[in-house]
């Protein structure tokens, strides 16, 4: 069991596209007839795209291993607004397999992976946001109070902060203090949430979202509301910053134009602009072609997607503004300058 859970945790984000969750929304908007979703794409990567042997598609993993990342067992339907889903062909395949194997959805493996992901989101993303100065801990608590009000878990969280501050007082400098405070707070959050894991009741809304008929699952007990508030507050605090807004605007432009470029069969003649494994076949439908373009684009890193954009469309002031913002944060040599030199060498 531990090997399955470790594998699920390792690959659960493998389908995430460039520009994160924003990129996920953009790609889904570009192909509404077939849909795009990061978890669904992760399953597709393991089952179809990555190759271990010429004799079969995918990595030839067991169905139990694949089910360990099956976070949402809900089929995509164009007529219904569903944010989280798996592709229809995968849903039908798993529906048949689960019936044959008498397996309940969701498996214990994916419940553990999902919980670990939620705890990591709350703890590590808060640490990263504090380290990147998106907000101070006092500002964060102020925002958290708007969501939790007088809930007892807010007082618990404030006590964790004081505990982390007291442990960090042994530091020898301000920088050390900030670092150790963040690390101590992360450690406290993780430990408290792990201790809070229990078998919890699922309401009808949760069951519909997850695609399960089970009434109970592993989950956070006392701190479920706190975890939800932490995630929302971190998300709002980070996404409202000017550099993230700029980052998402760049993502919109890059992904939209790359998708149009690869779908344009006059420019992308015989799909030669894409690697051979993504190229169109004679009997491919328009939906098949869209899926292959989505497969290709979603497998790119942010920097590679920008590199492809520059290769086909050139640089523009919008990208240069984004590049300047990154450079200002001290990441070293400017991205566009590096990419331009790379193409000159080619």
Overview of this structure, please?
GO terms for molecular function: dGTPase activity. This is Putative deoxyguanosinetriphosphate triphosphohydrolase. InterPro entries: dGTPase, HD_domain, PHydrolase_assoc_dom. It is an enzyme of class 3 (hydrolase). This protein has 346 residues and is mainly alpha-helical. It folds into three domains: 100 residues, no CATH class; 131 residues, no CATH class; 104 residues, no CATH class. Helix content is 64%, strand content 3%. A two-stranded antiparallel ribbon has the order 1-2.
Which SSEs are present, and which pair or pack?
Elements (H helix, E strand, L loop, with lengths): L1 H10 L8 H11 L7 H12 L13 H5 L20 H14 L6 H24 L5 H12 L3 H17 L5 H22 L1 E5 L2 H7 L5 E5 L3 H16 L2 H22 L22 H13 L3 H12 L3 H12 L6 H11 L1
Structural class: mainly alpha
**Strand share of the residues?**
under 5%
The best one-word shape is globular
Q: Provide the domain count.
A: 3
What sequence of helices (H) and strands (E) makes up the elements? Answer: HHHHHHHHHEHEHHHHHH
Percent helix, as a range, is 55-70%
What is the total tally of β strands?
Answer: 2
* Strand arrangement, major sheet: 1-2
Low-confidence runs of at least 5 consecutive residues: 329-333, 338-346
- Counting DSSP H or I runs of 4 or more residues, the number of helices is 16
Largest sheet: 2 strands, antiparallel
Quote the distance from N terminus to C terminus: 48 Å
Instruction: Give the averaged pLDDT, no decimals.
Output: 90
Backbone CA Rg: 22 Å
Domain HD: 1-122
EC number: 3.1.5.1
Pfam families: HD (PF01966), HD_assoc (PF13286)
Protein name: Putative deoxyguanosinetriphosphate triphosphohydrolase
């Amino acid at each position: 069991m531990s090997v399955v859970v470790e594998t699920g945790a390792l690959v659960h984000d493998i389908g995430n596209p460039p520009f994160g969750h924003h990129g996920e929304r953009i790609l889904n908007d570009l192909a509404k007839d077939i849909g795009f979703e990061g978890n669904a794409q992760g399953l597709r990567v393991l089952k179809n795209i990555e190759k271990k042997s010429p004799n079969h598609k995918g990595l030839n993993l067991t169905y139990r291993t694949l089910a360990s990342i099956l976070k949402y067992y809900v089929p995509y339907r164009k007529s219904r607004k569903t944010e989280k889903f798996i592709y229809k062909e995968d849903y039908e395949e798993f529906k048949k397999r689960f019936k044959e194997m008498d397996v309940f959805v969701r498996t214990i493996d994916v419940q553990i992976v999902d919980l670990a992901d939620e705890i990591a989101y709350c703890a590590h993303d808060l640490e990263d946001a504090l380290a990147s100065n998106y907000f101070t801990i006092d500002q964060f608590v102020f925002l958290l109070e708007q969501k939790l009000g007088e809930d007892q878990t807010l007082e618990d969280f404030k006590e964790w902060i004081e505990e982390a501050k007291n442990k960090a007082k042994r530091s020898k400098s301000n920088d050390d203090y900030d670092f150790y405070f963040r690390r101590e707070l992360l450690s406290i959050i993780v430990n408290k949430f792990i201790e809070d894991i229990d078998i919890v009741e699922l309401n009808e809304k949760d069951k519909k979202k997850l695609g399960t008929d089970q009434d109970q699952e592993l989950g956070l007990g006392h701190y479920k509301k706190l975890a939800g508030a932490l995630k929302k507050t971190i998300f709002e605090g980070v996404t409202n910053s000017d550099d993230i807004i700029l980052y998402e605007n760049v993502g919109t432009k890059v992904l939209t134009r790359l998708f149009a470029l690869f779908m344009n069969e006059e420019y992308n003649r015989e799909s030669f602009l894409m690697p051979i494994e993504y190229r169109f076949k004679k009997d491919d439908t328009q939906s098949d072609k869209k899926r292959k373009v989505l497969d290709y684009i979603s497998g790119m890193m942010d920097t590679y997607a920008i590199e492809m954009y520059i290769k086909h469309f050139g640089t523009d002031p919008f990208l240069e503004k984004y590049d300047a913002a990154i450079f200002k944060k001290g990441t070293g040599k400017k991205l566009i300058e590096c990419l331009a030199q790379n193409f000159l060498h080619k």
